[in-house]
Amino acid sequence: MEGGNSPSLQLQQLPLATAAVSVQPHTDSFSYKENLIGALLAIFGHLVGSIALNLQKYSHIRLAGSKDPRAYFKTKTWWSGFFLLVLGELGVFSSYAFAPLSLIVPLSAVSVVASAIIGIIFIKEKWKPKEFLRRYVLSFVGCGLAIVGTYLLVTFGPNSHEKMTAENITRHLVSWPFLLYMLVEIIVFCLLLYFYKERNANYIVIILLLVALLGSMTVVTVKAVAGMILVSIQGALQLDSPIFYIMLVCMIATAIYQATFLAQASQLYDSAQISSIGYILSTTAAISAGATFYLDFTGEDVLHICMFALGCLIAFLGVFLITRNRKKPVPFEPYISMDAMPGMQNMHDKGIAVQPDLKASFSYGALENNDSMPEIYTPATLPIVQEQHGSKGASAPPYRVLEHSKKE
């Protein structure tokens, strides 16, 4: 009897063991609820984060002329933005534990739409309706396209779910598709880094491709860390596994290097270009990493995949139109242009206006009264000696240099 029952017991236990490490298809209705929860958390996090950044920016603008460079730390507006920013990042971080990676990443277009709407609402300029429509029509069209693309992403997004246990993450980490993907990504990253560092190829596409490749690994590790925390909260402890801390270290390291390259890009290029090109490249790289590591599109039919790709393209176009019409920041100049001062005689040198420096400045171009300064600090003068045209044969030097001795 025992020998006859053992094969049946093994056959009954085999599906349970394989189901624990396999990606669950979207036949379960609860998986749709998880997708909705993750999408709502991501949208909420991006909205709150956008509001927080605008609050902090408003605080910096109000205190731009303050002598204390850290005066914004004393304002309630800046701290309100800081706490809202932390809340938004927590919302986005939590969303990775519920929904697939390929669904959460493109939803960052919500922050671009929210920033555009907030910027239009809080315009301080006086405008006419015709000028406003002509000036911001691309932004309105871009917002509409981004909203349509977001709806398609949420509706037709991948619906594969699995528990983020240490066993599942380890199995994905050593799978041959991901190892091949990592090999290709490392080679491409090293080539881009070589051209950027050694060949001084400071093109925006190269810098943002470096950011996108690092960002793809960041979101993969973020989903692993967030999913393992959620499984631990549900009762199955995963925080004692070494893979959790490996993913945590990789998440922090890639995020730091990603921020470094973004800072370098912001010093060379306009923020609007960084937002649009960075969103397209980062989203594409993250979706590819999610499809390779977590097998997000396993079991999806062709219609869902095509509609998801269409939603991504529409969101890309919307973000591009929004950022295309964004104003470029004008750098602050600590002097007044002389040709803008009424009643002031313009001084030009070959068509270039001479600008006065700040007071107490000894740099070139200072137009100040030097009578009160010591004579030793005054520049050498070149008095012109007029030539006498009476005798053509005698030639006198056109000028002479008055040198200052140490006694003077």
UniProtKB/TrEMBL annotation:
<keyword id="KW-0812">Transmembrane</keyword>
<feature type="region of interest" description="Disordered">
    <location>
        <begin position="388"/>
        <end position="408"/>
    </location>
</feature>
<protein>
    <submittedName>
        <fullName>NPAL3 protein</fullName>
    </submittedName>
</protein>
<keyword id="KW-1133">Transmembrane helix</keyword>
<dbReference type="GO" id="GO:0016020">
    <property type="term" value="C:membrane"/>
</dbReference>
<feature type="transmembrane region" description="Helical">
    <location>
        <begin position="243"/>
        <end position="265"/>
    </location>
</feature>
<dbReference type="InterPro" id="IPR008521">
    <property type="entry name" value="Mg_trans_NIPA"/>
</dbReference>
<feature type="transmembrane region" description="Helical">
    <location>
        <begin position="103"/>
        <end position="123"/>
    </location>
</feature>
<dbReference type="GO" id="GO:0015095">
    <property type="term" value="F:magnesium ion transmembrane transporter activity"/>
</dbReference>
<dbReference type="Pfam" id="PF05653">
    <property type="entry name" value="Mg_trans_NIPA"/>
</dbReference>
<feature type="transmembrane region" description="Helical">
    <location>
        <begin position="277"/>
        <end position="296"/>
    </location>
</feature>
<feature type="transmembrane region" description="Helical">
    <location>
        <begin position="36"/>
        <end position="56"/>
    </location>
</feature>
<feature type="transmembrane region" description="Helical">
    <location>
        <begin position="302"/>
        <end position="322"/>
    </location>
</feature>
<feature type="transmembrane region" description="Helical">
    <location>
        <begin position="135"/>
        <end position="154"/>
    </location>
</feature>
<feature type="transmembrane region" description="Helical">
    <location>
        <begin position="174"/>
        <end position="196"/>
    </location>
</feature>
<comment type="similarity">
    <text>Belongs to the NIPA family.</text>
</comment>
<keyword id="KW-0472">Membrane</keyword>
<feature type="transmembrane region" description="Helical">
    <location>
        <begin position="77"/>
        <end position="97"/>
    </location>
</feature>
<feature type="transmembrane region" description="Helical">
    <location>
        <begin position="203"/>
        <end position="231"/>
    </location>
</feature>
